[in-house]
Amino acid sequence: MNKKKIQLAIPAVIGTLWLSGCGESDSVVKSREDQAEPVTLKFYQHVLLPDDYYKKVFEEPIKKKFPNVTLELVKKTNLNWRYDLDPDIHEKLADGSFPDLIYTSSWHTHFFKNVDVPLDLRTLVKENRYNLDTFVPQSIEAIKKNGDNGELYGIPFTMNHAALFYNKDLFDKFAVAYPRDGITWDEVIELSRKLTRKEGDVQYYGTKFYGTLLAESFPLPYFNPSTGKADFRTDGWKKMMQFVKTLHEIPATRDYKGIIKDNFAKNQILAMAPENIDFINALEALRKEGAGLNWDVVSYPNHHEVPGVARTVDVHNLMISKASKHQELAFQIISFLTNEENQLLANRNGRLSSLKGDIFQETFGSEIEVLKGKNIKGIFKNTPAPLPPISPYNYIATSELSTASNKVAGGTADINTALREAEEATDKRIEAAKSGNKTNKAY
């Protein structure tokens, strides 16, 4: 290991640092008198966090434990969900300003891997006797899927479960029984038929979802393993698109416009929102603004073929850049953030810990006012599905499948045509990416 890094980083630890599940490590125990010179670490939020959450869970604990360390927050600037259009990674690589620490999702790790950003943490894990067995196995597996030979490109921080949020007032308004834990997608569509109504000038909608969302419970592969080509005209993808078609055959649903969060929480014209639990942060922000929303939550809808299985596991993880001059220090900070005390802090503030233990589900969201009296246990009734095979071109596939879903929803193409066109578009964009056309790369 680089001697300069050790001299800089190890004295930075004040008091005893407890590695996650490992107990005290001799390599990181230093006294307050041995502080290093001030160090600034850049922290890149590729998955964005609420400012108050970041301050409470990251900035303040790190400053207290590592008084010589200043975190410089760098936020992803392009908020378009189609990350192949996001220039952040390339710009920061080009000007040599790429951050030391990266907060991202297991779904997005390959964007960084494609341009050789993340450090393989296996050596640091071994040298610091860091115990990966304290984590929920799915969280480690999701990160390792991005490696070709067992590389570990990140450490799990939290897991983004999914659930079905519903507006109780709209159910009451139309005398419809509330959804229950264990609800299926077929039942969601039936409820949507009853809740899609127009009263005066106001159009109400039951729910809104896309085919790619529905497919995550299986999860359906994007590519044929033999040919490497897009493979969407399968029975599985056709069935998912049939759900989309059935939902949008409900009168008015085809004309749905707007953002799910706004229509559910602000405009209150959407009765059900299948969302990840970070949706809670938006609901809490609205509560603070004085918005009156009478809502609750149940388990994420499942398919009868895979009962008890929710969306694909989505691990929010911490990575270290290969270009960082402070890799050892960055790892010590990750170790600190993933100990039980700090994970409980993150957990109580609405992000489910990746550590094992019933205590995390029991204390989830306990410091968030908007969750008081809600069916929090329902969130954890289902188990997240595993990630599908990782490809650097998965996001090309998902963007084209979303286009296909929109065509089916809008009635501009039948299912077979929409899926065939999505296959052709995906293969064409991948060929362009392989030939070096960066505008088509799945970064």
TrEMBL record:
Top-rank taxon: Bacteria
Pfam families registered for this protein in UniProt: SBP_bac_1
InterPro entries noted in UniProt: Bact_solute-bd_prot1 (IPR050490), SBP (IPR006059), SBP_1_CS (IPR006061)
Keywords: Signal, Transport
GO biological process entries: transmembrane transport
Similarity comment: Belongs to the bacterial solute-binding protein 1 family.
Protein name: Extracellular solute-binding protein
Lineage: Bacteria, Bacillati, Bacillota, Bacilli, Bacillales
